Amino acid sequence: MSAQLPDVSVTDLAPTLGPLEWVGMQGIDIPVTIDEAGYHRELHARADVQVDLPAPQVKGIHMSRLYRLLDSWGEGHHISPPHVRELLSSMIESHHDCDSRSARLQLDFDLLVRRPALVTEGLSGWKSYPVNVNASLVEGAFSLSVEATIGYSSTCPCSAALSRQLVEESFLKAFTNQSAVEPAIVAQWLRANASIATPHSQRSEARVSVLIDQQAANLGLLSLINSVENALGTPVQTAVKRADEQAFAALNGQNLMFVEDAARRIRAALSNYRAPRVHVRHLESLHPHDAAAWSAPHRHEADHGK
């Protein structure tokens, strides 16, 4: 084909003049590599890439340029803030003829991590953590944030107190006429009756987002997730045997929490991160609706990027 192919995005003017805030593509399949804290894995991600279009007369941007930049960017490097900024700079440079001065990238993927059982030696299973990466380079100002969703179990403190009261009343009723009871008799009674009332608990989720320093070596995803799970104390489990299930029940009993408690625990655990945001949601087993709480950075933290 010797004839030059037409390119109406260059030769034609926009029929309606006006700048556009963002133009690009969404939902591009791409492999990405995460390499941090002993974790190295290539994952399937979906990417959104856009540049601004300030030139009012330009009919359209060059979508293929963005695609090719993203395609080559995903090979041979793990994701890091400098690596992301390099891509955004290349996207802007590739659209100098559109007067583009800003670019942004969003990545969505599941971080797949093998987690050991609580007690059973050698037992483990895979756990998936949805991750969202948002980065922008707007007229020279670079920003990168990560958001992770972490599953955990929550047991209601109010329900636990009410359950304990019923157990107490049942115990007093059973032994009200006895001035002394042998420990073995008490133990036997507890084995048969301690669950006469049980507190409600439910699968819950925490969504946390933080800003990442632009010179960081990686995204710090595992460190962030581990901080949240350690603060809550009851991360959901993968492979379990009876001993692990019993250990999980003990963790729930020792970590009673309302959504308010969970949000505050996580916020305290993320005090060394920049601009932490927290959203917790308890998928209630008592109600047909959920309980939720949010925590956002204080104004001075957001302004100074604490």
UniProtKB/TrEMBL annotation:
Keyword set includes Electron transport: no
Transmembrane segments: none
EC nos: 3.5.4.16
UniProt KW keywords: Hydrolase
Superkingdom of the source species: Bacteria
Pfam families: GCHY-1
One annotated GO molecular function: GTP cyclohydrolase I activity
Pathway it works in: Cofactor biosynthesis; 7,8-dihydroneopterin triphosphate biosynthesis; 7,8-dihydroneopterin triphosphate from GTP: step 1/1
Site-annotated residues for May be catalytically important: 156
Reactions accelerated catalytically: GTP + H2O = 7,8-dihydroneopterin 3'-triphosphate + formate + H(+)
InterPro entries referenced in this protein's UniProt entry, alphabetically: GTP_cyclohydrolase_FolE2, GTP_cyclohydrolase_FolE2/MptA
The keyword Transmembrane helix belongs to this UniProt entry's keyword annotation: no
Similarity field: Belongs to the GTP cyclohydrolase IV family.
Known role: Converts GTP to 7,8-dihydroneopterin triphosphate.
Protein name (record): GTP cyclohydrolase FolE2
Organism: Pseudomonas fontis
